[in-house]
Sequence to fold (95 residues):
Amino acid sequence: MHGLDHVGFWLLGVIPNIATQSLHKSRELINDCTGLSSIKYDCCHLTPCVCYFGEYESYQECAKCGAQRFAYHLKKPNKTFSYIPLEPRIRAIFG
Fold:
């Protein structure tokens, strides 16, 4: 109904006024409550061919399709991928 999964809908009742907060503030509240925080990686915006991490970290264009990493005249990536590391996720499940 609101574009939320069952966890997000559950959090509406647990965290007061979360629905009226900005997306950035809501993410901060959820990170504080759960102890989980995501790491953002730049990735190819045309197809999911390259995540600019490891050997690709310094690349300015996709090694597979040639798409530009950053938006025109900006140092803002065209697309990012949010990742929550495995160890904190497992600790949250069994904690």
